[in-house]
């Protein structure tokens, strides 16, 4: 959380030092590997859904990149909040994964999805985990007053060509960005996230926090291979001891 392993070296260290603002007490009868999967995935998903997008029961949300670990976490949280969800992914064989989590419908991800999705211009919210390559397309499918949150870069980090909000964004739509780097800063205190409730929902089976794969530290090379090959299909956890 807050950049550990990205802006701060030492993600595989046996010991680490974290800012007090990034430490939260949780009481839960869950295995350590499942607890480890909660903060980065579910805390981030919660902020994106309930702060950036301000989802409300009955709304229609499109999650672009629905089979990613963040996509699956956000999908389940949104469904639990009474939000209707359409999830996108690259492979039709993955439809069953998100359907089991409560997606109303699945769509094959494409750069011009806004021209093909039946609900275009009537969509309340878009959680965009694909990134810059579909940023403008995500904005194009929103209704007036709709919100899009750019929250991932599954499609790569190439910049948006000639992005001009004045000419390319519909009037009345809202755009925001969130990344977990900011956790622990004054505006994004981890204490704002209901981690205790998230853990309770996980223990009760209302949220699925079990990692897709659990590796021993000796298997770290295989863990990286699975991640880089796109075979994870969910959150992976490496156990150090």
Can you tag this structure with a few keywords?
alpha/beta; single chain; 2 domains; 8 helices; globular; Rossmann fold; about 240 residues
Tell me what the structure shows:
With 241 residues, the chain is of the alpha/beta class. The chain has two domains: 182 residues, Rossmann fold, CATH 3.40.50.720; 31 residues, no CATH class. The protein contains eight helices and eight strands. It has a six-stranded parallel sheet. A two-stranded parallel ribbon has the order 7-8. Helix 3 links the parallel strand 1 and strand 2. Helix 2 packs across helix 3. The longest helix has 15 residues. The chain is globular. The relative contact order is 0.18.
Strand numbers in spatial order across the main sheet: 3-2-1-4-5-6
Question: CATH class of the largest domain, please?
Answer: Alpha Beta
The portion of residues assigned to helices is: 25-40%
Uncertain residue segments: none
SSE class: alpha/beta
Distance between the termini: 20 Å
Q: What is the total domain count? A: 2
Q: Report the CATH superfamily of the largest domain.
A: NAD(P)-binding Rossmann-like Domain
Task: Provide the β-strand percentage band.
Answer: 15-25%
- CATH names the topology of the largest domain as Rossmann fold
CATH architecture of the largest domain: 3-Layer(aba) Sandwich
Please describe the biggest sheet, giving its number of strands, its sense, and whether it closes into a barrel.
6 strands, parallel
Number of E strands: 8
């Amino acid at each position: 959380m807050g950049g550990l392993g990205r802006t701060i070296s030492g993600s595989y260290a046996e010991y680490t030092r974290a800012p007090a603002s990034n430490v939260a007490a949780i009481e839960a009868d869950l295995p350590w590997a499942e607890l480890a999967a909660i903060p980065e995935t579910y805390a981030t998903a919660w902020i994106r859904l309930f702060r950036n997008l301000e989802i409300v029961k009955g709304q229609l949300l499109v999650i672009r990149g629905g089979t990613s670990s963040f996509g699956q976490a956000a999908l389940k949280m949104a469904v639990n909040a009474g939000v209707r969800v359409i999830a996108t992914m690259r492979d039709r064989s993955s439809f069953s994964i998100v359907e089991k989590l409560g997606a109303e419908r699945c769509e094959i991800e494409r750069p011009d999805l806004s021209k093909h999705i039946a609900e275009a211009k009537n969509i309340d919210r878009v959680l965009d985990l694909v990134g810059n390559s579909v940023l403008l397309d995500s904005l194009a499918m929103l209704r007036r007053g709709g919100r899009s949150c750019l929250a991932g870069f599954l499609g790569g980090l190439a910049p948006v060509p000639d992005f001009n909000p004045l000419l390319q964004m519909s009037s009345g739509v809202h755009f925001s960005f969130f990344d977990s780097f900011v956790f622990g800063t004054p505006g994004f205190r981890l204490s704002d996230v209901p981690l205790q409730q998230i853990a309770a929902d996980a223990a009760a089976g209302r949220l699925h926090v079990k990692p897709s794969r659990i590796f021993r530290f000796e298997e770290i090379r295989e863990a990286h291979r699975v991640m880089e090959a796109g075979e994870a299909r969910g959150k992976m956890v490496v156990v150090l001891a």
